Amino acid sequence: MLARxxxxxxxxxxxxxxxxxxxxxxxxxxxDDELLTKVQLLVEPVLLGSGASTSLADAVFSLDGAxxxxxxxxxxxxxxxxxx
Length: 84
Fold this sequence. Notes:
Shape: elongated
Radius of gyration: 18 Å
Number of strands: 2
Number of helices: 3
Low-confidence stretches: none
Strand content: 5-15%
Mean pLDDT: 87
Order of helices and strands: EEHHH
């Protein structure tokens, strides 16, 4: 899958960059650390709390041994009254 970006500057100059496989695609997957960082940046502002992404990641990583999805669903609930 081709990822392409084109930018037109004020002077009319067009800058363009294209890559065959973008980072995070199936052909160029993120490392575990990169994926956890991405989860942190996306989750914590939404779930309103520092550490919310760690709780969510821990719940995901323990799904294999879990009796159900309760921990995962609980970790995905916004924390009311806290701020990141």
